[in-house]
Amino acid sequence: MSYHRILAAFDGSELAEKALRHAVDLAERKPGTHLTVVHVRQRPVVFGAAGYGFVQPEGLEQEIAAHESALLARIQQWTEPLAYAEIAVLTGLPAPAILAHAAARNCDLIVMGSRGLTTLKEIMLGSVSHHVVQRATVPVLVVK
Predict the structure, then answer these.
(1) What range does the record give for the signal peptide (predicted)?
(2) Using CA atoms, how far apart are residues 75 and 53, in angstroms rounded to an integer?
């Protein structure tokens, strides 16, 4: 099957990079294919109650910005040879953000790594790839 609009999810993990390589390869095989690479910012949940709350460590925003800049540079490096590539930085819960962006861009394929969370978080919260596979209306290529 030939795809025209591919969305690749990228969180900086090894498997996400492997998935991005697959997405770039698919896009290169068919001239005119559009590739959108998304990175989803997921800010920590802040809890607070009368007199109690989360105090953000000093310099945290700068560390996050530096980390995101490094991720975007890696994405740019991989997508540079493509004629039709874009990078989108989204904010929110990863799976719903990926699905909404894929729908908004009329993507006909979603490519992503199989794991990004630690084992404990995955058991407690479920994996992003599993959520996307279960709710996507287009094919999803999960790279291991």
Answers:
(1) none
(2) 36
Residue 51 lies in a domain: no
Q: Is 15 exposed, middle or buried (0-12, 13-18, 19+ CB in 10 A)?
A: middle
Instruction: CATH number of the domain at 84, please.
Output: 3.40.50.620
The single-letter DSSP state of residue 75 is H
pLDDT digits (tens, 9 = 90+) for 24-80: 999 999 999 999 999 998 766 555 555 666 666 778 788 888 989 999 999 999 999
Tell me how far CA of residue 95 lies from CA of 6, 26, 78, 129, in angstroms: 16, 22, 23, 7
C-alpha–C-alpha distance, residues 88 and 91, integer Å: 10
